Sequence to fold (240 residues):
Amino acid sequence: MRAPDSDLPVQFDRIQYEAGNRRILDVESLAISNGAPTAVIGPNGAGKTTLLRMGMGLLTPSSGRVTWGGRENVAPVRRAILFQRPVMLMRSAASNIDYALASIKTPRIERKRKIFDLLALVGLSGFESRPARRLSGGEQQRLALARSLARDPELLFLDEPTASLDPAAAKSVEDVLRAVAGRGVKIVLSTHDLATARRLAGDVILLHRGRIVEHSPSEIFFKQPKTEEASRFQAGELLI
Fold:
């Protein structure tokens, strides 16, 4: 049997994205390949969310092209994205996942097992009947992760997955992301939290004014940054 096509690597070539008279993204070349999570960092307005949405295929560049596994205009069957404030359906935790499974036509007989497996993966075993909207912020984020993983993606984009969470809840989410990455899912996450990037990322992309200032392995980025902007950003200084 022919192996299914992979969406990796995601390649950005001479990308520009403009809204009105403002250029939001200007990326000459970027490849996102399989492996440890990639962290996208930078100040507010740097273009982080735009980059993730374009990698997902939700935005079309004003110029240039994005390819997935060498192919253009690929339906996001093997990709998923989770935004900073996920919307919980007005139903139980299990039913939120069941909805995602039904949307991809998972046979009903398989759904119960998948729901239990996914809830266990994100540390929510026993929460099947809990109303999703009554869960804590960290629990809702983990449920949203389980719902995204129902599609069995090979590529998962996360926009500020630990923002507004207390340290304990953030750690729980990070633990889930490590487990997901350990299953071979490529994670690309934007974050303002340098500590999160340091703990999770295999490589780091620093964006400023829509441009990639630095893209390095995590160890090099944090110990021996190559650019003044990276050094200043890590020191907590404003990038203007």
